[in-house]
């Protein structure tokens, strides 16, 4: 059975180590992509998950990769191999899925763009584990059991690291990051809709900066 390469794992580990907070970004207006992501980077967050939840996701990835080369720019909400190929072409540096299928896991083994597969259960985790994956997105975190579930996973899957996403807030992020098997936390609170709609980029920068500060208190 083909196994995940060490290089692939090291790339994913580098992404998760680059920032404890990973903003889940849905671009409603393409013109907002670069200034929004620049505002997050100015606030100290340099890992950007641009989702395919809107029609602008692919083009936003292209533009942000060119405009902010110092950041890690990846694709989220990838649900098919076709989308995986599209985000590869767009220049994504990592791929995050909300769940797993055998075909996506196997495609990720040979892709030059590393995969962080999403899981919500031990059974899903085991599909990826059998192929050599050891880093996973835990989604939807709060609905799927939150911190108690992650603590339970640490027993049988002692060598697995998670990035939980879904229902996490600035106030609860620190509690998740305190777990030994959590490397980073994803969340949409880092891009409040009202600030984005108002194009309040300094406000976004402050949200990013203050969210990072909460982690050190």
UniProtKB/TrEMBL annotation:
Keyword match Lyase: yes
Record's catalysed reaction(s): 2-dehydro-3-deoxy-6-phospho-D-gluconate = D-glyceraldehyde 3-phosphate + pyruvate
GO molecular function: 2-dehydro-3-deoxy-phosphogluconate aldolase activity
PROSITE patterns: ALDOLASE_KDPG_KHG_1, ALDOLASE_KDPG_KHG_2
Pathway given in the UniProt record: Carbohydrate acid metabolism; 2-dehydro-3-deoxy-D-gluconate degradation; D-glyceraldehyde 3-phosphate and pyruvate from 2-dehydro-3-deoxy-D-gluconate: step 2/2
EC number assigned by the record: 4.1.2.14
SUPFAM superfamilies in the cross-refs: Aldolase
InterPro entries documented for this protein: Aldlse_KDPG_KHG, Aldolase_TIM, KDPG/KHG_AS_1, KDPG/KHG_AS_2
Subunit structure: Homotrimer.
Protein family per UniProt: Belongs to the KHG/KDPG aldolase family.
Full protein name: 2-dehydro-3-deoxy-phosphogluconate aldolase
Organism, as annotated: Marinobacter salinexigens
């Amino acid at each position: 059975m083909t196994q995940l390469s060490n290089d692939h794992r090291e790339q994913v580990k580098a992404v998760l180590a680059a920032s404890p907070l990973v903003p889940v970004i849905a671009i409603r207006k393409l013109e907002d992509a670069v200034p929004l992501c620049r505002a997050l980077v100015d606030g100290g967050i340099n890992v950007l998950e641009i989702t395919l939840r809107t029609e602008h996701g692919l083009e936003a990835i292209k533009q942000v990769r060119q405009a902010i080369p110092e950041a890690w720019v990846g694709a989220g909400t990838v649900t098919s191999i076709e989308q995986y190929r599209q985000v590869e072409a767009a220049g994504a540096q990592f791929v995050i899925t909300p769940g797993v299928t055998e075909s996506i896991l196997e495609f990720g083994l040979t892709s030059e763009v590393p995969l962080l597969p999403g899981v919500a259960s031990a059974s899903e985790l085991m599909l990826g584990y059998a192929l050599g994956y050891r880093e996973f997105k835990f989604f939807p975190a709060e609905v799927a059991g939150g911190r108690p579930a992650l603590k339970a996973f640490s027993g049988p899957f002692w060598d697995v690291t998670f990035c939980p996403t879904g229902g996490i807030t600035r106030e609860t992020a620190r509690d998740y990051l305190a777990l030994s098997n959590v490397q980073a936390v994803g969340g949409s609170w880092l891009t409040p809709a009202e600030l984005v709609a108002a194009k309040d980029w300094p406000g976004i920068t402050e949200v990013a900066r203050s969210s990072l500060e909460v982690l050190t208190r």
